Every structure is written in C-alpha cells, then in structure tokens.
Amino acid sequence: MRARLTRLLGARSAPDPAVGPADALERVRPTLADLTALNRRAAALPGWQDRSHARQSGVYHAAMKGRGMEYAESRPYQPGDDVRALDWRLTARSGKPHTKLFREERERPVYVLVDLRRTMAFATHGAFKSVQAARTAALVAWKTVLGGDRIGAVLLGDDGCDELAPARGTVAALRVLKQIVRRAAPGARTTPLAVAAEHLRRLVKPGSIVFVLSDFRDLDADARAAIGHVARHSETLLVQCYDAFEAALPAVREPVALSDCAHEVELTLDDRGLAEAYARRFASRRAALQQFARDQRLRLVSLTTADDPFVMLQRTLG
Q1: Is 152 found in the same domain as 194?
Q2: CB within 8 Å of 206: residues ≥ 6 apart
Q3: In a domain? residue 60
Q4: Which of 166, 216, 287, 302 is the most exposed place for a label (fewest CB within 10 A)?
Q5: How many domains, in total, are found in the chain?
Q6: Is the overall model pTM greater than 0.85, yes or no?
Q7: Residues 205, 228: contact at Cβ < 8 Å?
Q8: 126-130, 186-190, 238-242: least confident range
Q9: pLDDT at residue number 251
C-alpha cells in the first residue's frame, strides 16, 4: 500500500486505529477542551519567576527598594521611616533602632506569539504544527497565571492577527485559548509573519518574557527587525515547529500521496538527488534561523510534531 501524508486545512488526518475520533480531531485542530486540560500539567513546569531578565533589564526583582514582600536588609532608623518596619531583633541586639528594608517585586508579563496559518496545518506523525504551537502557548499561559503574572498574546492566522493585552487570572488564560481556537480556522489569504512580529514589537514592554511559536518559513528582514527589537529588552525564546517530513524525505520506493482535502498529488521519493536537495533546503533555512538567534542572543529550540510540548518546555525552562 502507498503511504499517505495529509496536509489538511481543518479536517482530520488519515485514520489511526489507535486514536479515537476526539483524539484525532485534537491532533489536527486546537480545541478548547484540550488546551484547557493542560492547566494541570502546567503546574508541574519549572517557573520563570526567579529567572533573570534579558541583558538590559537586570534581575527579576526591581533594583529599587521599598515597601514589598521580600526582606532586603536593615539599616539604622532615620526620621520619617515607617515605625511598622522596625527591626526589633537588631534594635534589641545593637541598642539602636534599625529599620527593615524590603525589595519591591516587579511584575513580569509573559507574551506568546502563535503562528496558526495554513503552513502550520501539517503533520505526518503526532499532531499538526499548529496544534503543537497552541498546546505550548496554553502551557505557558496556564503557568503564567498560576505564578500570578499577566499573560498577553499575538495570534497570527491566515486572515489577520489578533493582539491581546496582558491580563491576570484564569479568565485571561481562557481568553487567549479561545482566541487561539478561533484564529486556527483556515482563511482565504496569508498574513506575513512580519505583521505579527510588528504587533509584538508594539505590545511588549521591557523586561517581559516572550515565546515566539512558528515554523519561521517566512522570517524576512521585517520580521527579524521586529523580533530583534523585542529581544533587546526582553527575554525571548524562539520555538521552531516542524515535521520530520519537512526536514528530510522518507526513504521509500512506493508513491506517496499528499492531500489538502480538495486536491491530491502523488510523488515518487526514490530520487536521491531530489532528497538531498530537499534536505539541504531545510538545513539552510534552519541555519539562517540559528544565525539570527545567535546574532540577537536569543534562545532557539525545536518542537517536532511528534514531541510532547510539556517535555520540551520542562527541558527548556529547567
């Protein structure tokens, strides 16, 4: 029998006897039930509340000292100090009044840019790239609100881009997830990655944490400039989503059929010259992305369609 590789726009992948109808649907389209259920797994992820900022933003806690939750140091009492902050133990030992100073915690918003365009609706194993990106964004959103921080998002679809200002709480996380599900529907045109990157540049404030989830197939000069601007003042992580078939053609002699539900084309993959050129093209795009990450001092990680987004984040954040 011939192998069947499916590139579907909102339809189910080829039947798998080990996967039920609901599971099959969740592998090709983000669903609110699937993304919401990830809140339990997100609680087990390493936190970023104590991680340092990007190179221009210092550490997570603000340098200024004031009335806050974390004790910083004690100093001799000065007129005007709040008597409620007296360090009674040090005062008793030294015989002179001392005041406690507290390090004021600074808020650190988290943003996700999620690519949900039709080029992300592809997989030969596991789940579509768009589903993997959505699940990663859901884990980040739940982890963010569990840590008390605000979650914001830029969601890129075929027909446009949604910008969600950062907000706290379960309602904020659900708002992001619901919009991911809506934006994942296929559209009539394709919006460039640069449009979403520019939305991100305008939305993100210095000292934030940013996750960019895409296959980066159209990472042009405008997109690089906008993401690079964000990276100069915020900790930014690039997550490249791809399928094994995009990296290298399988070594099979039988014809392979690719379908988008409307059309089907049959390919023969036993031409080694074609396979080598195909692999070089992906490797070249990957190398350019790696060079961009090095130039901008970004962290770049991979997420294949067969990976577990939770394991990827656990390894990356840990």
Answers
A1: yes
A2: 56, 57, 233, 234
A3: no
A4: 287
A5: 2
A6: no
A7: no
A8: 186-190
A9: 78
